[in-house]
Protein 1
Amino acid sequence: MTSVTSDVYGCLPGGFTVKRFCLQSESVKVEIISFGCIITCLETKDRHGNFSDIVLGFDYLEGYTNKHPYFGAVIGRVANRIAKGRFTVDSKDYFLPINNGPNSIHGGLKGFDKVLWTPEVVENGVQLSYTSDDGEEGYPGELKVLVTYTLVGNELVVNYKAWTSKATPVNLTNHSYFNLAGQGSENIYDHEISIDADHYLPVDDTMIPTGDINPVEGTYFDLRKPVILGSQIAKLQESGFDHNFCLKESKRQQTCARVWHNPSGRVLSVRTTQPGVQLYTANFLDGSLKGKGGAKYGKHSAFCLETQAWPDAVNKPQFPDIVLHCGEQYDQTTCYQFSVE
Ligand code: BGC
């Protein structure tokens, strides 16, 4: 049985109320706010039955309205990077705000993480809707978006649906930062990870995929068998993982990643319908943000598993297509399962 309760989380300028929804089962408690569809708290049990909050974030709304690295938020209209903020759809060129080096990232200056969604309680969860105007952040077409979070037992399921009035790229994900030792723990070096991907996307020095789809075989990106994150990160030339792993093509949910934290026993397993997952090991966190309970989040203090379409797909015909057309439905689901071992 999942209980769903709500309260007022805060107030935005202009008097708009931000609501918080608490979904609670026997083994998991998750809190979601209507600003940015953000997961602000996610408590799961360790092997002794003790709950800890395993996601990074802030104690107050201001943390989320200020600039921050997308803690817990839903990202859109297009998650990840679009090279030079440019693309062409239906023979028309579009120009997006440049907000990451020479590129556009995570929906632009005011992406879906920075807007107020309209929430509605549903069975075992909450459904949040948002209509993105034609031209918003440079993207074509009015896009109606519906994000549904449901909790059943130890599984948190996130479903994303969208419909557009004109052809537009769409790529929606959730950007939660996990630390299975509990948020505020120093790093994730003692976590063991596996990702079921035979290929990954190498990137250029602005983090845009080169266009190659490289086999993981024989590289440090081969995570098909579990590896310890600390020692694997140490082997990389890069400062950590920040790469898209290409998942096997399937319309059905497939297991894409598993993370095990031996000291607590916590396990996170992720299943998704998406064609890719970005493993990001919080390489850009530097301890300057004041997080929950005064925590200072340093480099590698969390990992993200952003299930998504492939970065810059709108400019790479060899990547799975991300253009949604008028009359079509975007429909993607990611399931996070929490257990102990
Ligand atoms: C990107 C990182 C970026 C982070 C926060 C991730 O999706 O891959 O490069 O730093 O989001 O913006």
Protein 2
Amino acid sequence: MIALGCDHGGYNLIVAIKKYLEEKGIAYRDFGTYSEESVDYPVYAYKVAQAVVSGECEMGILCCGTGIGISMAANKVKGIRAAVVGNAFGAEMTRRHNHANVLCMGGRVTSEEDAVKFTEIFLNTPEEGGRHDKRVAMIKEIEEGTFM
Ligand code: RB5
């Protein structure tokens, strides 16, 4: 199950991503917003982040105008590694190296076509272990306040 969320600035991307997920038969839960009426992105970041850390959803996708504000809010939730992605290489590497569990994109900087492409890459790229496990463990230690 994929958790989806957006504000008004990312609504168009989420519409395109939902169409893609439906075509592929991938289950999702849409936490809103559901129109281009102005809303506050932290609300949707929080709902999606909670769905991921609770285990209800394996991964999340969040979109706002730039992808930045909504990623900042999501990253405040313990256990979330939200990545703002603007190219295919980033979509792949943030899964392989950073074990990102939330993909963030911006409706004012990324086309719907690219957002679907980055989503497909993100959802189909595995996490790499070894040195990357060690580094992600360090991120978790920073989060816990036990690092260094
Ligand atoms: C909303 O106008 C805009 O600030 C928001 O979508 C996002 O880009 C924030 O980072």
Protein 3
Amino acid sequence: MEPALATPADLWNAALFPPSSCPRLVVKIGSALLVDPAGSVRRGWLEGIAADIAARARAGQQVIVVSSGAIALGARRLGLPKGGRASLEDAQAAAATGQIALSQVWAEVLGASGLVAAQMLVTLDDLEERRRYLNAAATLDRLLGLAVVPILNENDSVATEEIRFGDNDRLAARVAQAAGAQGVVLLSDIDGLYDRNPALPGAVHIPRVERIDPAIEAMADRGSASGMGSGGMVSKIAAARIANAAGAQLAIASGRIDRPLSTPARHTLFAAEKAAPARKAWLAGGLTAKGMIHVDAGAVEALRAGKSLLAAGATRIEGRFSRGDLVAVIAPDGMGVARGLIEYGDQDAARIAGTRREDHAERLGYAPRAALVHRNHMALL
Ligand code: GLU
């Protein structure tokens, strides 16, 4: 039976990560929720989650989905042993086969809820290497701006063992960081962290974790209960660490109910660090800036109001740098106002400094980026 939800406000008060406090949410869905033991997609459940996502979208929340299930689905279709995880080649063939079906189902169920889906397959490198990280972040930003629901998965069919995330828990946390999301929900077959293996008698559920210390880490049991996905509690805690350090809260919740994004249920919440997110701290200190972007007073004001740095506000470019390098943003009085990852190399930055976006394509000879330094990749000083 559908839970009785009196008004949308009630719904959001009870639900995890309401749109009011979490404008951007990443939802990771584990393989066992997407694929049944016989190898078919659990379409009814997916339709429910699509309806949940649509309700959140109507309430103003931008939702990114990280969907597992390609290997599980493909393995069943190809009749591969061990859920397609007997060898890397098997996993890659299974992923390639399963992904095409998975994408189609997502497009269909979201389409039925009035939403457009987009597929992004990423590898670890895409989120580690700074230029590619900026590309992935910009694409996510644009899709969300267009009210599209990005569906992400690891590009398992090309990623080799050494460069794989291997589990979508950590991938989801990195995606949250790239997209500047405030919340991450890991939906799987378990409703949170227990003080020991939940199958053992006396295991106690932990509702909230303020700090991930060795005692919390010791609670993680290895392996995934369903045997379908690769992410056990160890990878979920690693994901929580990444998300929290980036300033996002992370919840582990069970997807073993219908409509898990609108039904209040038991979960474990990993609270975000109160201090400046680690990435911002890293941007603010640490590395030496490769160049300086001198800006006008209007730009300083815009940055302090939380906006991105637009080329129009730049008055002078100093230094030699490439796209993705760290630069310092300098106010008219010579004081540093911010540091961030630059979207252009120094020559192209100089070409568009002080000019409006309409003129950028002609000056650059290619489609311009949205900003010189995007606010998600910038720390104010
Ligand atoms: N990327 C894998 C898949 O689509 C899932 C990884 C995981 O189990 O977390 O099957």
Protein 4
Amino acid sequence: MNKDLRNAVIAGNWKMNKTPAETTALINEMKPLVADADCKVVLCVPFVDIAAAVEAAKGSNIEIGAENVHFKASGAYTGEISADMLVASGVKYVVIGHSERRQYFGETDQTVNLRTLAAVNAGLTAIVCVGETLEQRELGYTETLLKYQTKMALTNLTKEQLKNIIIAYEPVWAIGTGVTATAEQADEGNGYVREAIAEVYGKDVAETVTIQYGGSMNPKNADELVAKVNVDGGLIGGASLKAEDFAVIVKAASK
Ligand code: 13P
């Protein structure tokens, strides 16, 4: 295991929060606080906030991401946004297959795979989310499920394309609940994801893939989580809406 082989990435996922004006204000507040980060800093924002976010982040070390992308290049898909549209708007990253999308919007392992292919083919870095529910964990399916979700999401991706893939292990029971996975559980879950990648692409490739943990990561628990060998940063919900909290997490990943 060698953590030096991969980038630590702290990404905020703002979910359905913030107007464009609030986006500008929050990024302006964050910029000086994360300026000396020794990890990648990304903010994934609602579509309507992208223009404001890209503008506010100009000249800083903050990169902007979206929270979803459609898998078709263009056409009659009312309400959807293509990967090329995101690229043209200055977006570099996109969250795909978040559990909220799987739970509320009919996202499946197949559509996650199609979106991932579309994103990577357009030059975006995909932050692909996987994670088990509490029921699945209690039934003993965590490893099987994480490996299945990971392999399904990466179907038809080449070794070369994995350079533009980040996987976020987000146990569904830890999202927005205040219940964080222990550092050991996070490391174990991320380890299953890395094993799944190794089973398909080989161990050397798997060692280079950034695997984040997400689920109630906050300024208090970030240090312990990101210190784990398999945890290469985090995908942060609630705490990414507060500049100071987010900055503390960025600092933890910069050590
Ligand atoms: P919270 O940090 O609010 O638990 O959300 C995690 C998450 O879902 C990030 O994508």
